[in-house]
Fold Myosin heavy chain, striated muscle-like protein.
Amino acid sequence: MFIKWPSTLPADIYHTSRIGRSKASSDRVREKAKIQRGTAAAAMAARDAAETSLRLADTRATRLRERVEELTKQLQGLDT
């Protein structure tokens, strides 16, 4: 006794399998894009933080330079 499979069953299984693989592939692409967006956002935030830090360091350096000039003038005044 042999059981005859309906002729549509293998095709249905094949298409279901292809749909599953396509969905999995699509999910991977979406997840990769999500990770890339997150990485880009983190990179932009790091860049902004670095720029802020550099501006702060530049401001401090300017103030220190001005203070050194002021103290140098005071020393020169004491020497004369």
